[in-house]
Automatic annotation (TrEMBL):
Coiled coil location: none
Gene: ppk2
Highest taxon, organism lineage: Bacteria
Annotated protein name in UniProt: ADP/GDP-polyphosphate phosphotransferase
Gene3D superfamilies in the cross-refs: P-loop containing nucleotide triphosphate hydrolases
Taxon lineage: Bacteria, Bacillati, Actinomycetota, Actinomycetes, Micrococcales
Length: 264
C-alpha cells in the first residue's frame, strides 16, 4: 500500500477510534480485542497504531508474561479474568488465553488433557463474557512462511528490535506445519457465532493495519458523542509571585544544543 495513502487513511481511522473511545466511556461499554497470530505477523505494531491516540486510562494493552508457579496451579482462565474491562474500558490483548491452543500445545508446555480441556472450555468462557455484555473481537494475523523468515532476519540484524526475537520465535520456522495444524484445530473449536475469528492478511503491514482497524470500527456499534466545549479562561494578572533564580534549580543539561552545534 502506498505510504501516503496509508498515512492519510490511518489518521482518519485513528480519529474514528477516538470517537469510538468516547462512546465507550459515555455508555459504559466493555470491549475486549484479542490479537493472535503467527510470530512476526505484525500484531504488536497494529496494536500500537490502534492505541496511539487513545486515553491509556480507557484503553489499555494487556501482554501477560509467562505464568508463575502459583498461576500455573490456578484455573487456566483465572489470570486473564483479572484483566477484563470494567464499564467504559477497552482492553487490547497482545496474545491471550489462546496461548494454550498455540505455543503451549505445539511446544509441549501443557499436557494433552489440559489442551483438550481448553478447547472445550474456551467457547463456554467466551459465551459467558458475551452474555454478560462484553464486546469480544478476535483477530488472527496471517503471514506467509517466506515473509515471516524475512521479518525474523530483519529483527535479528536490528539492535533496536532484536528484543522482539526469542528462541521460541525462531523455532516457529521449523514447526510451521505444527502451528498451522494447531491454528486450524483452534478455529474449528472456538470460531463460535457469539465470538467469531476474523483473519487479517498481514503480508503487507500497511494494508493489514488499515483493514483491521476499519473492521474493528465496523463491529462496534458506536455513535458520535457530543462533547461540551472547553473554554480556556484568560490568565489573571500577576499576584507578585517571583520565580526562584534559575541557577538554584537542577536543570537537565542542554544536550540538544550540542546536537544542533554538531549538525550546523
Amino acid at each position: 500500500m502506498p505510504k501516503k495513502a496509508y498515512e492519510r487513511e490511518l489518521k482518519a481511522l485513528q480519529a474514528q477510534l477516538v470517537d469510538m473511545q468516547a462512546w465507550v466511556q459515555s455508555t459504559g461499554a466493555r470491549v475486549v480485542v484479542i490479537f493472535e497470530g503467527r510470530d512476526a505477523a505484525g500484531k504488536g505494531s497494529t496494536i500500537s497504531r490502534v492505541s496511539q491516540y487513545l486515553n491509556p486510562r480507557v484503553a489499555r494493552v494487556v501482554a501477560l508474561p509467562t505464568p508463575t508457579e502459583r498461576e500455573k496451579s490456578q484455573w487456566y482462565f483465572q489470570r486473564y479474568v483479572a484483566h477484563l474491562p470494567a464499564a467504559g474500558e477497552i482492553v487490547l490483548m497482545d496474545r491471550s488465553w489462546y496461548n494454550r491452543a498455540g505455543v503451549e500445545h505445539v511446544m509441549g508446555y501443557c499436557t494433552n488433557m489440559e489442551y483438550h480441556r481448553f478447547l472445550h472450555q474456551a467457547p463456554i468462557f467466551e459465551r459467558m463474557l458475551v452474555e454478560d455484555g462484553i464486546l469480544l473481537l478476535k483477530y488472527w494475523f496471517s503471514v506467509s512462511d517466506i515473509e515471516q523468515e524475512k521479518r525474523f532476519r530483519s529483527r535479528n540484524e536490528d539492535p533496536m528490535r532484536r528484543w522482539k526475537l526469542s528462541p521460541n520465535d525462531v523455532l516457529s520456522i521449523t514447526k510451521w506445519e505444527d502451528y498451522s495444524r494447531a491454528k486450524d484445530t483452534m478455529f474449528v473449536h472456538t470460531d463460535i457465532p457469539e465470538a467469531r475469528w476474523f483473519e487479517v492478511d498481514n503480508e503487507d503491514k500497511r494494508r493489514g493495519r488499515i483493514n483491521m482497524i476499519h473492521h474493528l470500527l465496523s463491529q462496534i456499534p458506536y455513535t458520535p458523542v457530543e462533547r461540551d466545549p472547553i473554554e480556556i479562561p484568560p490568565r489573571p494578572a500577576s499576584g507578585g509571585y517571583e520565580r526562584p533564580p534559575r541557577e538554584l534549580q537542577n536543570y537537565v543539561p542542554d544536550y540538544a544544543a550540542e546536537v544542533i552545534a554538531h549538525g550546523a
